[in-house]
Structure formats: C-alpha cells, structure tokens
Design goal:
2 copies of one chain form a homodimer.
Chain A lengths: L5 H10 L7 H13 L2 H17 L16 H4 L4 E8 L2 H10 L4 E5 L17 H9 L5 E4 L5 H14 L5 E4 L15 H9 L4 H6 L2
Parallel strand pairs in A: 1-2, 1-3, 3-4
C-alpha cells in the first residue's frame, strides 16, 4: 500500500498492529476518524493511554481493577475459600454473567505455552500456589479452555498443589444446552457420557 | 457488559465507536494492548491524534497529503486536464495501483446521500464545478461506486457541468477479468453486452 501522507501511513501502521486488524481495515478505521470531529480521536487516544498507564490488577486475584482489591475479592459475602482459575478478565465476566458462582477467582493472565515462550513464571501461577500453601483455599476449580495449552496449565498447577490436599475440580464439559446431539463433536459427546450426572441434579438449575 | 474497571470500560467504549468494532472485539483489542509494552499504546494514540490534528488536504484535488499540493497534482508529467472523480483516498490508491492512469483526481470525500444528510455542499462538489467553469478540465471521468448514491452524485455533478461542454465519461462496468460468466449478476452482464467494445481494443492492455 502506498500512501500519499506520512501521517496517514503512520496511523494505519500503528492501527494494523492490533490483532485481526489488517492494513485495509486499519485504513477504513483511520479514514472514519478523519471524518469525525477531532474530539473523537482525542478521546480514543486518551482513553487508551490512560488505561495502559494507570491500569491496576487486584492484589488478590490479579483481575483488572481500579481499586487495590477488586469488587469480587472485597465482597465479604463471597466464599474466598472457593477459587476459580481462569485465563483472563473475559472469563471472569462470562462466569459472573451466569450469576451461578459465589466464590473468588484467580486470573492467570494466559496459559502455559512453551511454543510462545510463556512459562508458569510469566503467569500468576506462583501466587496461586502460595495461596494454596497458606491454607486459604478449600477448593480450586479449573476453568481454562480445553485446549492443549489449557490442559498443560491445569496439569502443571495440579502437580504444584497436589501436596497440600485441597479439593480440585474442573468445570463440566458436555453438550451445550439447546444443542442437538447429532451435531456435537465426538470428544465432547464422549466426555458428556463419561461424566454423566444423576438425573435429579439436572433438575436443580435450568 | 459489566466491567471491573472504569479505565478499561472507557477504553472499550471508545474503541467500539469505530465502525465494525463491537464491544467484544474492542475488549479483545484493548486486552491485547494491555499485554504489550506501554510504548505501543502511546505510539498508537500519538499517531491517531497527530494525524487527526495535522492532516492536510491537497489544495487542488482534496486528496489527503502532507504537502500543499499532493504528489500527483504536483507532478508536471500528469495530464491536469483529465480529471477522475472519486469518493475517497482508497479509490485513488486503487486506481494508482493499476498504473493505467496518468491524469489528475478530484476527491469528493463522500457521495450525495439525502438519507444520511449529506448534500453536495458537504462534499467538494462546488470546487469541482469551479474547476470546470474555469476551463481547466478537458475530460471528467466518473469513477464512483455504482450504487444509488453514486449514481445520484454522478448525475448531480453532470447536470452542474453540462453547460460547459466538456467530455464526460464513466469507468467501464463489466465482468471482472478472470470471472466466469455464469456467476455474474444480470445487471453487470447486461451492461457488459450493451457497452461492448471492439475486439481489437481488448487486445491492447492485458
């Protein structure tokens, strides 16, 4: 792509550094900003810099938070002995949306992935292990995505905390509510039969 | 979407003002920036603000340019009497890419669209009419997209410059090179038969 303006080219190049944004999309977004009042570009730019500079992570669960402790960790009515291990804030938001969970979280900030050079030390794994060691966790729920990296991470953490004898569980994998059996993939369907639950339990939450 | 951080929420809200970027995508982009060094957010923000504040439009063709006259208008080897009317800089870039055009451009900055409240005065139509009036155009090539708004804009300009007796042409519509006839839409195929050209001419450029 050849640009008639260095300013435009810079903006497009920076924009296309974002994941999933190619040069064409970046140009479309940048031209849109050009048609809008200056204030919009300033507000966008300001909000990004302000966020990046001042962002804070909860001292307990490492979730993004504007306060030292996030709202969830600061809430005395939530069970702090029950800890759900997730990858990032999006998973926290998704689980919170269900209104089915009243425990705490532990946000890892990623998954162990030797291919991408991400080891346990790059994540918040050590602080999770410390928490377990200190005896402040009764049950740990693994809620990472079930990919190879997710399974590796689960297993690594499991091995680290094994000596401390706490309950470890993992979220149920199975057929989505409302999905037709015939379209489910074999692995999921297989797991859902293997880990079947008493029929009466299925009546509790609908 | 409920956010645990006002800073994060602001950034996501601003990002999702961009066309085609929903809240989920905005969150993904913003979380990506959080994982990158601060410099990346600063450079992105800086490039957007700098572009929006200092952007300049060519005094002659209204294309985005860092100089008073854009490179095309400043090039003495290009035919300034031949003017191609386009919507925005993306069309200029696309036509320049073909290396088939040696004239000037006139960038309208949009199309006439009463539905969106865009009239000829919001575009650079008046300055184009002035240019024709001053006798500095021999041929005007309409190269707007063939939508209702494009056709309306073409026709409006055509009516304005009709008294000045210059040549007006429009880019050829037809079957794309390499496309199969059976998959072409009827309107395009119909036009391509109606506006057929001598076979010898088709041999000139390939």
């Amino acid at each position: 792509m050849e640009f008639s303006s260095k300013l435009l080219e810079n903006a497009v190049n920076e924009m296309s550094q974002l994941p999933g944004i190619g040069k064409r999309t970046a140009l479309r977004l940048v031209l849109h900003l050009l048609k809008q009042p200056k204030e919009q570009s300033q507000k966008l730019a300001g909000s990004l810099v302000k966020m990046r500079e001042n962002i804070n992570f909860c001292a307990n669960c490492h979730n993004i938070s504007d306060t030292k402790l996030c709202e969830i960790c600061a809430n005395p009515r939530r069970d702090e002995q029950l800890v759900c291990v997730v990858e990032d804030i999006r998973d926290v938001m998704a689980i919170e949306n269900t209104s089915q969970y009243r425990g705490h979280y532990h946000v890892l900030g990623g998954k162990i992935s030797p291919m991408d050079g991400i080891g346990p030390g790059d994540l918040t794994v050590p602080s999770l292990v410390e928490k377990v060691k200190a005896g402040s966790v009764r049950e740990l729920i693994f809620a990472l995505s079930s990919t190879m990296e997710g399974d590796t991470t689960n297993f690594y953490i499991y091995k680290q905390i094994e000596p401390y004898n706490i309950t470890t569980t993992t979220i149920a994998r199975g057929i989505s509510v409302g999905d037709e059996l015939e379209y489910a993939d074999e692995v999921t369907l297989g797991r859902s039969i293997l880990h079947r639950i008493p029929f009466e339990s299925s009546l509790k939450n609908s």
